[in-house]
Amino acid sequence: MTSSARPHLNRRLAEFGTTIFAEMSALAVRTGAINLGQGFPDTDGPEEIREAAVRALRAGHGNQYPPGPGIPELRTAISAHQQRRYGLLFDPDTEVLVTAGATEAIAASLLALLEPGDEVVALEPYYDSYAACIAMAGGKRVPVTLRPHEDSFRLDLDELRAAVTDRTRLLLINTPHNPTGTVLTREELTAIAELAVERDLLVVTDEVYEHLVFGEAEHLPLAGFPGMRERTVTIGSAGKTFSFTGWKVGWVTAAPELVAAVRSAKQFLTYVSSGPFQYAVAEALALPDTYFTAFRDDMLAKRDLLATGLAEAGFKVFRPAGTYFVTTDIRPLGTALSQEGDGFAFCRALPERAGVVAIPNAVFYDHRDAGAPFVRFAFCKRTEVLEEAVKRLKALA
Ligand SMILES: *Cc1c(COP(=O)(O)O)cnc(C)c1O
């Protein structure tokens, strides 16, 4: 959609069209294609957690405005989760804030922490709300591009250091990274932490896929690195970990002064949200380790099914170390099939040609050319759905 179709939209937001997900999901409905575009599971999370939400609702827990920072039970559960998994201690009263999903946590953090004109260094390609939220806060985004290197996308630490200027206020990090599936290594995170300390930067880190990490890779929270505890805002969410993306329960953990700042913005966005679901998520976070392991193993099997199928269909596959997305390079399909390496054209044609919907990674880039040949597929779908998608994609060639 061009901005002339939206004459009332202000200049800060004019560059942001309708999200690609709306266009591609409409295309999926119109063509009856399998939608591997948007990242939401096609089965709900644990039955006992659904029941916990029903119980809360029936008992009248959370049906009226819950407390502004989130219900104490959930803040305590978030704190206990950070301690149990990572050995990080956060005071549930002053260092934890419940938000309307990670999406609000990102928006509130940027609105609270940025002055107009401040620069934000962010890893490109970025999750689609980052650029818009930086713009709404009056900030200026400075992308550092993750580049394909053998089988994954990697961060160039020299490029990262060079991106920081005297106007840089914060680093916006995402690990495990959507859409590339990159999980930042201990060395990379150490370098990020050293840079943040040296240049006295705040760090906002989106770790919503913390439980979806495969094989050798390990999720290490940035807040655990030297000098980071007091300068890092960590963002988590129940949506991805418990397969309840519609509940919109997210959170922030950070030092008291940072939580207080984020809360100041958050209280005027939604004030509060998801009352009964907060009770259910408190129970979910206390599930035994077997839940988290089984969830990860299930997604790992799905990753392998889709990644192997895509490779057999002729794509170059970047087998993700985390998240539930696979990024592919379409160029090995040949110039005709790959629409000359144009991911947009490829994704617009794919539903008619193969009955599958995917997302062109270029939408997540400022440097659109750098993302042009890459296309993302989600694998958080039932096995039979993925099998059918693979069958259709193999028929492409
Ligand atoms: C899905 C997603 C979010 C949004 O999470 P919600 O809790 O649904 O708001 C934020 N960041 C990344 C990287 C995501 O993939």
Describe the structure.
By secondary structure, the protein is of the alpha/beta class. It folds into 2 domains: 135 residues, Aspartate Aminotransferase, domain 1 (Alpha-Beta Complex); 240 residues, Aspartate Aminotransferase, domain 2 (3-Layer(aba) Sandwich). It contains 14 helices and 15 strands. Strands 2-10-9-8-7-3-4 form a 7-stranded mixed beta sheet, sandwiched between helices. A 4-stranded antiparallel beta sheet has the order 11-12-15-14. Strands 1-13 form a two-stranded parallel sheet. Helix 2 runs antiparallel to helix 10 and helix 4 crosses helix 9. It is globular. 48% of the residues are buried. The chain binds pyridoxal-5'-phosphate (PLP).
Short description:
This protein has 397 residues and is of the alpha/beta class. The chain is 40% helix and 16% strand. The protein folds into 2 domains: 15-43 and 290-395, Aspartate Aminotransferase, domain 1 (Alpha-Beta Complex); 47-286, Aspartate Aminotransferase, domain 2, CATH 3.40.640.10.
Tell me the β content.
15-25%
Number of helices: 14
Name the CATH class of the largest domain. Alpha Beta
The side-by-side strand order for the widest beta sheet comes to: 2-10-9-8-7-3-4
Report how far apart the termini are.
Answer: 32 Å
Order of helices and strands: HEHHEHEHEEEHEHEEHEHHHEEHEEHEH
- Low-confidence segments, given as residue ranges, are none
Q: Count the strands?
A: 15
Number of domains: 2
CATH topology of the largest domain: Aspartate Aminotransferase, domain 2
Radius of gyration from CA coordinates: 21 Å
User: Roughly what percent helix?
Assistant: 40-55%
The biggest beta sheet is recorded as:
7 strands, mixed
* CATH superfamily (homologous) name of the largest domain: Type I PLP-dependent aspartate aminotransferase-like (Major domain)
Keywords: Amino-acid biosynthesis, Aminotransferase, Cytoplasm, Pyridoxal phosphate, Transferase
Pfam families: Aminotran_1_2 (PF00155)
Organism: Streptomyces lincolnensis
GO molecular function: kynurenine-oxoglutarate transaminase activity; pyridoxal phosphate binding; succinyldiaminopimelate transaminase activity
